[in-house]
Amino acid sequence: MSAAGPLQKAIFARLAGDAVLTALIGADGVHDHLQPRSHRPCVFIAGIETRDASTASEAAEEHLVTLDVLTGEGGGRIAQEIAARMRTLLDDVPLVLAGFVLVSILHQRTKTGRDAKAKGHVAEMVFRAVTE
Fold first, then answer.
1. Up-side HSE of residue 35: CA atoms within 13 Å toward CB?
2. How far apart are CA 86 and CA 81, in angstroms?
3. 61-108, pLDDT tens digit by residue?
4. For residue 41, which of 112, 130, 129, 128 has the smallest C-alpha distance?
5. Burial state string for 61-95 with b = 16 or more CB within 10 A and e = fewer than 16
6. How do residues 11-20 score in pLDDT, each as one tens digit?
7. Radius of gyration, CA atoms only, the chain
8. Are strands 30-31 and 61-71 parallel, antiparallel or unpaired?
9. What is the set of domains in the chain, with CATH numbers?
């Protein structure tokens, strides 16, 4: 069994339970996947790529977690504010995973830009997590 599911649940709970982030995106602004008619701004877990990172003595996985922030027209500044809050909430924090141990979760990169198709702004964040 992979730790990806419990990791996703822990990340979702951490984001959805934060009052400051909720003030920025609204009460229903965190999703575990993109909703067809999500209000904006919103945050969703775009994907988790998992690789085996086991050693000779320890079973482990490396996870690249992609989180997306979507805002409406003219929302470049708010996308950056939301991304900054998410980094504060997730970078190097001790999340509790059901059945697994989180060794680390660290911010790798954030890319922000205009999303012409959706008529708004997007911030794509990638975190690297290691679990045992």
1. 14
2. 9
3. 999 999 999 998 778 899 999 999 999 999 999 999 999 999 999 999
4. 112
5. bebebebbbbbeeebbebbbbbbebbeebbeeeeb
6. 999 999 999 9
7. 15
8. unpaired
9. 4-59+69-131 (3.30.2000)
Q: Which residue has the tokens 């141990």?
A: 101
Residue 21, both tokens: 């982030």
Place of tokens 């920025």: 24
Cα(101)–Cα(88) distance, integer angstroms:
21
Task: Tell me the two tokens of residue 132.
Answer: 């045992």
- According to DSSP H, which parts of 4-75 are helical? 4-16, 19-25
Is the whole-model pTM more than 0.90?
Answer: yes
| Highest mean pLDDT: which range of 110-114, 119-123, 124-128 | 124-128
CA distance 30 to 25: 8
Query: Two tokens at 39?
Result: 């209000």
- CA separation for the pair 28, 38 (Å, rounded): 9
